[in-house]
Design goal:
CATH superfamily: Luciferase-like domain
Distance between the termini: 19 Å
Number of domains: 1
Number of strands: 9
Helix content: 40-55%
Strand order of the largest sheet: 1-2-3-4-5-6-7-9
CATH architecture: Alpha-Beta Barrel
Oligomer: single chain
Number of helices: 12
Shape: globular
Radius of gyration: 19 Å
CATH class: Alpha Beta
Order of helices and strands: EHEHEHEHHEHEHEHHHEHEH
CATH topology: TIM Barrel
Structural class: alpha/beta
Length: 334
């Protein structure tokens, strides 16, 4: 049976982007403003992601920013998309998210990733002697689940707060690796198709085919994160999205900058190789008027059958970013 957009939840991934001429303090102010707006517009959850040593991403202390957003809103779920678990001990994350859930009961999500969320040199600075901690990611997820369990009260190491709290754990993926883990543990699976679309279909098929029901989840649940730039016209959206293109050109070339203003013609900015590389990463990007975005997103839903769509929007002007999310809410509600 065909799913329609108005039958599935829709959510936000905020990469806490720092724009040219602004500071992280400005970013956090705008993030809270966005969160309050999308809460009113009916969005389901608002996630932030752990990145390090990236000039344009301000959410390195992810748990702190989650607290900032949750404190300024009242109903929307707030969480991580994700916490890069190999960067931390499971006990510390259990305590941090146990604290968040105690402060904001019933509203906190814990999405977990295996990658470092940064370059190798920075990962070494974060992890130290635990540099190869990614190899123990499956075991660390199980440790985290144990710390949250009420049964852990008999153990000598306990997460206070955290123990006995119902905090949904998600597994994040950008390749097929974590699909097997999410399926084996019976956890919901969130895929980073907004920057790593190449293995998206393969990964969600692996997850669905191998899924084992758990206490948290009876059936497979796939959330896909995509890029969305919506505006009142296709022409305006196609101009606004050039900020996203410039951001990904920086990823391709290794020359990262703060989010740049839109330009009239990207051909003046990037070469053919940079354009091709960026477009491969941006295959799951939806740009245009409300009508255009609705048509393209419905086609995406038809092809993938995902349970939830999460949108991230790298837009230079805060007012234009708000408008994009407002139009997207209309896409899902109409």
């Amino acid at each position: 049976m065909k799913k329609l957009l108005n039958t599935i939840p829709f959510s936000v991934l905020d990469l806490a982007t720092v724009v040219e001429g602004k500071t992280p303090a400005d970013t956090f102010k705008n993030s809270l403003d966005l969160a309050r707006h999308v809460e009113a517009w009916g969005y389901n959850r608002y996630w932030l992601a752990e990145h390090h040593n990236m000039i344009s991403v301000a959410s390195s202390a992810t748990s702190v920013v989650i607290g900032h957003i949750a404190a300024g809103t009242s109903t929307i779920r707030v969480g991580s998309g994700g916490i890069m678990l190999p960067n931390h001990s499971p006990l510390v994350i259990a305590e941090q998210f146990g604290t968040l859930e105690s402060l904001f009961p019933g509203r906190i999500d814990l999405g977990l990733g295996r990658a470092p969320g940064t370059d190798q040199l920075t990962a070494m600075a974060i992890r130290g002697e635990r540099f190869n901690a990614a190899n123990s990611f499956p075991q660390d997820v199980l440790k985290l689940q144990a710390y949250f369990s009420a049964e852990n009260n008999k153990n000598s190491v306990r997460a206070i707060p955290g123990e006995g709290l119902d905090i949904p754990i998600w597994i994040l993926g950008s390749s097929t690796d974590s699909a097997h883990l999410a399926a084996a543990l019976g956890l919901p699976y969130a895929f980073a198709s907004h920057f790593a679309p190449a293995q998206f279909i393969t990964a969600i098929n692996i997850y669905r085919q191998n899924f084992k029901p758990s206490a948290q989840l009876k059936e497979p649940y796939v959330l896909a994160c995509v890029n969305v730039v919506a505006a009142d016209s296709d022409a305006e959206a196609n101009r606004l999205v050039t900020s996203l293109y410039q951001l990904f050109m920086g990823i391709v070339t290794g020359k990262r900058r703060l989010l740049q203003p839109p330009v009239d013609n990207m051909d003046d900015v990037w070469d053919v190789y940079e354009e091709e590389q960026a477009n491969q990463m941006l295959a799951c990007t939806f740009v245009g008027s409300k009508e255009t975005v609705k048509q393209d997103l419905q086609q995406f839903l038809d092809q993938t059958g995902v349970n939830e769509i999460m949108a991230t929007s790298h837009i230079f002007e805060h007012s234009a970013r708000l408008r994009s999310y407002e139009l997207l809410a209309q896409v899902f509600k109409d």
